[in-house]
From TrEMBL:
Enzyme class: lyase
Functional summary from the UniProt entry: Catalyzes the reaction of cyanate with bicarbonate to produce ammonia and carbon dioxide.
SUPFAM superfamilies, alphabetized: Cyanase C-terminal domain, lambda repressor-like DNA-binding domains
InterPro entries to which the protein is assigned, alphabetical: Cyanase, Cyanate_lyase_C, Cyanate_lyase_C_sf, Lambda_DNA-bd_dom_sf
Similarity-based family: Belongs to the cyanase family.
GO molecular function, one term: DNA binding
EC number(s) stated in the UniProt entry for this protein: 4.2.1.104
Catalytic activity entry: cyanate + hydrogencarbonate + 3 H(+) = NH4(+) + 2 CO2
Pfam families the record matches: Cyanate_lyase
Domain Cyanate lyase C-terminal: 90-163
Protein name: Cyanate hydratase
Length: 215
């Protein structure tokens, strides 16, 4: 029989490591009885991108803050820090101890070199971007009624040449708030735009390097 989901709540053991608005967002989410799928549709974002906003791991656009404020009935003044550049990766310990998150870590431990070998054979030497990147989670139910998790990771490939990855916008290791390199074929990211946020309305291009898929 297929498993049934339940509403996500903020783990109190990590709450102290997150920005103050995270608790307010989760409280309002629970009070409204809304899933991340429902909130994501309201924001016109992916579920993972939406959840990342709630954990303070992504930068919100002014439109995101406005929509969340109206949907969850939380004052915009209480969500203002969501528009700041996030301090990512501090929610939990490394390696992770939460069992479900550890399974994801374990997948990389077990299959990391296998992924690398196959990626190198298909693309050559280089890296998969975690900036020009999108991910989603789907649920499948097989003929026996068992539930299966499907996690898709989609990242732009940057080939390595002379020891450095060639990027159409940002040099390897560069923060997304920086300007694109002079030889960029596209304007790159609008200043102030984070990869989890939509490009600004006045941008003359889609906002992201050519071929990039975002959340």
């Amino acid at each position: 029989m297929a498993t049934v989901g339940q509403m996500a709540a903020l783990d109190p053991t990590i709450a102290r490591n997150l920005p103050p608005q995270c608790g307010k967002l989760f409280e309002a989410k629970s009070a409204k009885g809304l899933s991340f799928e429902q909130i994501a549709k309201h924001l016109e974002r992916s579920e993972v991108a939406c959840a990342a906003l709630f954990y303070g791991q992504a930068q919100a656009s002014p439109e995101d803050v406005s929509r969340l404020s109206k949907l969850l009935e939380v004052p915009e003044s209480a969500l203002g820090s969501m528009k700041a550049i996030p301090d990512r990766g501090r929610a939990g310990p490394m390696p992770p101890v939460e069992p479900l998150i550890y399974r994801l870590y374990e997948i990389v431990q077990n299959y990391g070199y296998a992924y690398k070998a196959i990626l190198n054979e298909k693309f050559g030497d280089g890296i998969m971007s975690a900036i020009c990147f999108s991910t989603k989670v789907d649920k499948e139910v097989d003929e026996t009624g068992a539930s299966w998790v499907v996690i898709t990771l989609r990242g732009k490939w940057y080939s390595t040449k002379n020891g450095a990855a060639k990027s159409p916008g940002y040099p390897l290791g560069c923060n997304v708030m920086a300007k694109p390199t002079a030889d960029a074929k596209s304007p790159g990211y609008p200043l102030g735009c984070n990869v989890m946020a939509k490009p600004t309305a006045e941008a003359k291009s889609p906002g992201y390097p050519l071929g990039c898929t975002v959340m």
